[in-house]
Design goal:
Layout lengths: L13 H10 L18 E8 L13 E9 L2 E8 L14 H13 L6 E5 L10 H13 L3 E11 L4 E3 L1 E4 L4 E3 L12 E4 L5 E9 L4 E8 L15 H14 L4 E6 L5 E3 L11 H16 L25 H38 L7 E4 H12 L8 E7 L5 E4 L1 H21 L6 E12 L8 E10 L6 H4 L19 H11 L3 E6 L5 E8 L3
Length: about 525
Amino acid sequence: MMDTNVKTMSGSYNRMFLVLLLMVLVVGGFIPMSHVNAAQLRAGVAKVDITDTTAGPVNDRLYVRALLLNAGETTAVIITVDAVAIGEIGHISNNYLGSVRSQIENELQIKPGNVLINASHCHGVVCSDIDRRTFQAVKEASLNMVPVNVGAGIGYEDRIMENRRLKLKNGQEADVRHAYSLVPDEEVAGVGPVDPEIGIFRLDRKDGRTLAVVYNFAIHPIQGVPGGGNTADITGFASQVIEDNLGKGTIALFLQGCAGDINPVWYKDVNHPRDAEPLGNMLGLSTLQALKKIDSKRDNRLKIINEVIKLPRADYAQRIFSMEIEQEKLDYILRTEKEIHRMDTVIRQLLDLSRPSAVDSSVVSIHEVIDDIANVLNVQPLMSNIELTLSLEAQSDQVLADPNQLRQVFLNLAINAADAIAADREEKQGKLEIMSEVIGKNLASKKHFMKSIEIRFIDNGSGISQKILDNIFDPFFTTKAPGQGTGLGLYVCFMIVDSLGGNIQAHSAEGQGMTMTITLPLAE
């Protein structure tokens, strides 16, 4: 009767599990028939709700279930949790296992090695105090111990699962996941196997009423529900079906028998909505059908054997090392490309200054250019936390200039302002205001008094000191980190404005923002 071979790729150990529960309760081992404990076998069960009701809509409840078995001086605990994993991934911390076992040992004097905790692998969201509620379930079970008869058997269910691995004609395998696209049908040679057996262990009170059903099956309960609510998924529905049919006081504990690769059926089928409940109902009913054929009887044998099983793992050390070397090469190439681009920008800006514009100057509306760049700025990520205000009050706004050069100047000043606001460590709403007004001014480049337009870019960034302010229009001067700027932006702005017969000035103080003022002669 004993079959200890691993049967399929699914990692299922259902037959092994069945034999263990038929003979004794075991945590990871086998018990010879000669080991007999004459004390009366007693058991207690309890379940506690662990649903996180703050994580969104709840479709069905998640539970931690506890089963205590005792014979004389030997006590064992099985705990099943509706969760994706015990630590590492999901919502249960890495401290959970040690915390729960410590509480059980300190208050109930049950050794940590006698406590088996198993996660169903459903993707439900559990509450933050799950360790406290787990101990609550164990303690409640310990207070309700009754004499029991036991029995074990096998059920069968092959309609609700499928192997996740597709065997391809080229000898490789493809993984079926929601995030991955499927290979074409003509490339598929076959699908990996599944294990349809349900390992079942029943515990009945002396009056014949069922106290607990422990069932073991190979499937990952990750189907979800149509509404997308929090759910214990397939195995949660299966346990509920078993408990509802066997009456009040019965607890059904699901032990995951799948080491990997077993999906719910129709996992990627667009013609079948994702609904765990029908699949869970089938698993529960198949377990109940098999349970009817299992007789329970007095059997007081209980012994704990702890065994550490080393799982086979691939050695990817050399592959990881090779990929790290490749990553370093790619990083070097990216840095090189970035520097080449930066050098290209510097050279292009210098060439633009050394040769006349290909476009002849014409009468240009300053306000139209500002409106144009405002539309560009409003959709840029760098302006997401900056309020842009236009106060264009100049009654006359036409100047003789190259519109592309003006656009370059205004964009440069606006982007500089946005960078200064972003660099300010104070958490405040960024503000950039662009203003215009007509003034009368005796320009240095002109011999007579004439009307001009003044354009101001005012930001509420961190500002700069007078020492830096004196140098900001110098070529190659920048306050940005190495590689972040060419130091030519404001120098180019200065040269363009000067070529138009105007001037540009900066006014700032540390902590008081910056005002950049451009003055240009109006077209006569």
